Amino acid sequence: MNKKLILILGASGHLPSGAGEAEFEALYNKEIKPLVQALDKFPRLSIAFHYSGVILNWIERRHPELFMLLEDLLSRKQVEFLGGGFYNPMMPLLPLTDKIGQIEMLTTYLRKHFGKRPQGCWIPNFAWEQTLVSPLAACGMGFTFLGERQFLMAGLDHATPSREGSPSREGVAPCICEDQGKIITVFPVLQSLEGELAGKSIAELLKALMENSDGICREGSEAVVSIFPKKISADSNELPDVSWCRFFEEISLCEGFVETVSPGRLYKNLEGLQKLCFSDSTGTENGIPPRRFIIDNPEAGRIYSKMTFANVLISQLRGDKSRKLSAHKELWKAQSSALFCRTGKPGLDSNLLRNAAYSALLEAELVTRERGKFIPSLVAFDFNMDGAEEWLFQDTRINCYVQSMGGGIFELDYMPKAWNYLDTCQGRVAFADRLVPGAVTIENLKCGTVGGARLCCNERYNLVDIDKVRRKLRLALRPSAAAPNKKQPPFGSIEIEKVFLLKKDTVCIHYSFVNRGTSKEIFQFAPEIDLSLPGEGDAFVRFFICKSAAADTPLADSLLPGADGLKIQDIKNEVQLTLTASKSFDGRIAPVYLTGSEDPQFYQAICIMPLLPISLEAGESWEVEFNLKFSH
Fold this sequence. Notes:
By secondary structure, this protein is an alpha+beta fold. The chain folds into three domains: 4-290, 7-stranded beta/alpha barrel (Alpha-Beta Barrel), CATH 3.20.110; 298-374; 375-631, Beta-galactosidase, Chain A, domain 5. The chain has 14 helices and 30 strands. The strands form four sheets. The chain has a 15-stranded antiparallel sheet that branches. Strands 1, 2, 3, 7, 8 and 9 form a six-stranded mixed sheet that branches. 25% of the residues lie in helices and 29% in strands.
């Protein structure tokens, strides 16, 4: 063959802050250690590694012996480390200071431990916006990688079948990207080739690729391709180190037409590269841009809003660089790309990871609070960046954020433990109001939709009054008018007024119901009060029914008959939450899982559902007050 295939081999790995020790050990023993040890046996091969700062820091603490082997491979120029964000962040969602800060943090770590700055970087999930070019170049990054699919989306023709039916991948070749006068080289990663590795040998695939390499960028007569394989064997019983040794041996046997090269040595010598502009996207199968993802997934949108809010607080720090850096480092822990996609595990669906992200964000917020000078407040602020104001109660020990949609609490932070008790899924809130028919009992009460109910959580409450001095918020839901040519919705004549008040360690919600219709209304009030607890079972949480003139009794099942209150003991955080009401109530407790699942691994929260009967003549009113108190 006259042509030669220049092959960039790579490997990447990441686990977000909050992942369990067992997950780190599994990644190390099944992927990282076997790969590095196998590579040591093939000194003629080169590979580019990208492991996030979280992974590298864990290896340094738990398995420092691997660092010694990596240093040996680096000295033989077999290994090149790629830079990027220390916490493997979703880059497009970060402000400029965080992009640069995270990249420099990982660059400093690599330089300190391995003696060399990275020349290029890895972008998690290939999440791309053209404006990334400038900060990457400003941080000294000369090249990066994007997915094959993104190259095809960039205005190039799709690959055409060859005579053997294999794709030619015409035009999927290294290119130049520019922004604000800065340029960076982008290598395509052949993801479709990675998918074939489990069923075919790498030698067979490389030969087919070489035969159909017309149109791929060449350096003289040499084609340039890159692969970052995830799975290299279809045999699940084959040991990882055996798989990697076989994989590397097959590549070595192709050295007559294949040469593995580190990208840092290659990119400066490539000439005549095409200039491209990539659309906002990710390299995942659906290619959903991150900004679209946070709109479609409320739990991701809330973390993003909290990240943005934390940045606002940090920007207000003046003259204290040490505190500012400490706050940024906590903030960066919450920016993991795993929280802004649903590919791979663990990810957004893991309440443990979301809990860890909120914990880091709250720690960042605590750093911004000057000790002894923090002033409790109630402010109106567009926290969700949706064009409507939310109302933020902030106290020394409790944050309570209220939204107009549903008039519910969407964030409830207990600051001494840096824990958000409303880190729930699918945009759920606490004190989501429902008016249900009188026939509903606690035995058949369930979360979400109830037949014949008015779901006030789907209606927008109006601001009546905000008293910032007394920190009192008054919202109202007016009677629901019938849509044209349709019947009046259930209990549509009922007007609801909610008053929120934050006292010391206690959130108070006062309800007032008024019948604005002309006839009697009989219904039940069944609010949903979600609480994100660390897990299910007595090891994580214990419930006690409170009744006046009687000792608290452990909850025997999920039903709450004739209760005056409920005590919830969060075992992990050593926090007790006490829910009380001004009237006795029946009720039920139910776990909240991801939609369509009752698997404990997809547990998200518990939902407390008090049930109070109400009968109102025309013009008559009825009141009740709930108090949620924190102590530890």
